[in-house]
Amino acid sequence: MSSKEEFIEIFKEHITREGADALLNYLENKSDFFTAPASARYHGSYAGGLCEHSLNVYHCLVDYLQRSRVQELYGLEYSDETIAIVALLHDVCKVGCYKSGTRNVKDENGRWQSVPTYTFDDPLPYGHGEKSVYIVNGFIRLSREEAMAIRWHMGFSGPEDNRTVGQAMQKYPLAFALATADSEATYFLENEDQ
């Protein structure tokens, strides 16, 4: 099964609230979600990387929330729909932002060669997490905790004041869980240093 097929299967199985069909239609037919990279030069910097990253975050979040400590001590329990929404859609803000191009690099013999790359050019510079909330909320109604999780999914790696990030994660534990899953997918599964 391709990443696109897996994404659509999870989406259709779990995301059923009003507007979900229109959102999926947008992702499939009116955006580059399934062909876009997840970044210009790091994790998922290849065609289809955004979809693969979203699936990785989904699987990491599902696994994190199944830990007995998370369930019993922290009391974190969310519906399958909420988990699918925040994980699969947290980076919708990246749709339409990456352009294919080339850059020159030296090969092992010191000769310049042209290699494919992506450049980032955001047509709607609305921020990162907040832009994803804005786009998704245009199709389906997010709960406050879902919106906060998507908004703060960058955790402490974003440009925001650390006190604000900490307050958001304390008030909305799903934000911490999603940031943890996003970091795990980015730094371990997708190994940003490669």
Describe the structure using short key phrases:
two-stranded antiparallel ribbon, 194 residues, 2 strands, mainly alpha, globular
List the helices and strands and how they pair.
Layout: H1 3-14, H2 20-29, H3 49-65, H4 68-73, H5 80-89, E1 98-106, E2 112-120, H6 129-137, H7 144-151, H8 162-171, H9 173-189
Antiparallel strand pairs: 1-2
Which strand order spans the largest sheet, edge to edge or round the barrel? 1-2
Radius of gyration: 17 Å
Low-confidence stretches: none
Classify the helix fraction into a percent range: 40-55%
Structural class: mainly alpha
Q: How many strand segments? A: 2
Shape: globular
Please state the average pLDDT score. Answer: 94
- Proportion of residues in extended strands: 5-15%
Q: N-to-C SSE series?
A: HHHHHEEHHHH
Q: What is the number of helical segments per DSSP (H or I, 4+ residues)?
A: 9
Distance between the amino and carboxyl termini: 25 Å
Taking the sheet with the most strands, its summary is:
2 strands, antiparallel
Describe this structure in words.
This protein is mostly helical. Helix content is 51%, strand content 9%. The protein is built from nine helices and two strands. The protein has helices at 3-14, 20-29, 49-65, 68-73, 80-89, 129-137, 144-151, 162-171, 173-189; strands at residues 98-106, 112-120. Strands 1-2 form a two-stranded antiparallel ribbon. A hairpin with a 5-residue loop joins β1 (98-106) and β2. The two termini are 25 Å apart.
